[in-house]
Design brief:
The complex is a heterodimer of chains A (110) and B (128).
Chain A lengths: L8 E4 L5 E6 L10 E6 L6 E4 L13 E6 L2 E6 L8 E9 L4 E4 L3 E5 L1
Parallel strand pairs in A: 1-9
Antiparallel strand pairs in A: 2-6, 3-4, 3-7, 5-6, 7-8, 7-9
Chain B lengths: L2 E5 L3 E2 L5 E8 L7 E7 L6 E6 L5 E3 L7 E6 L4 E6 L8 E15 L2 E11 L3 E5 L2
Parallel strand pairs in B: 2-11
Antiparallel strand pairs in B: 1-3, 3-8, 4-5, 4-9, 5-6, 7-8, 9-10, 9-11
Amino acid sequence: QSVLTQPPSVSAAPGQEVVISCSGSSSNIGPNYVSWYQQVPGTAPKLLIYENHKRPSGIPDRFSGSKSGTSATLGIAGLQTGDEADFYCGAWDNSLNGMLFGGGTKLTVL
Amino acid sequence: QVQLRESGPGLVRPSETLSLTCSVSNDSTSSHYWSWIRQPPGKGLEWIGYAFYTGSLNYNPSLRSRATISLDTSKNQVSLRLNSVTTADTAMYYCARGSLLGTAVRGVVIFDYYFDHWGQGTPVTVSS
């Protein structure tokens, strides 16, 4: 099965910026849109970014998304302790003919 | 705002059938792609499949032989049945509202699929 690869963990200090990568293939990220989800421990995931870079209403502009080729990135600026969570990328996979999620990245704000 | 609430038995015996229901408020199941997603303890998200009110269904190939998703538009509910469960099916099960659009660009279909509303999840343990 195709996979979307994310780093298991990232960390940074409050106020700094962090970037989380999501690496895919020509079967998923290459041709299709990417979405990002934030999951605070013990809660359900929440949509952060859709269509590669768009933010739903209520998501602060500290969160940004981009895509290039078969990879995507989520950027979080001005880190706050409340941003600590697991982050997942997702994209339609043409081989799976459905949604594929990355393995998740745990963000620690030191 | 849109609310989704999952319900079902928290404990299922191995080889039996898992049955869950998602009740949708402030939206209609006669639009959007209603999906089930699961998350084993300490692990990542796994898409199970979706149902659309037209009768369109789609499943993760790894679960296609055991999963059934259905919509009851009169009750505004989405259901999941997963048969012949094993301990590997122990997970938090989420219902989610999906947006799916496929656009043809120069002969290639570009898919835009994401989940903008999620339920709180319901835990299911498979154990004897």
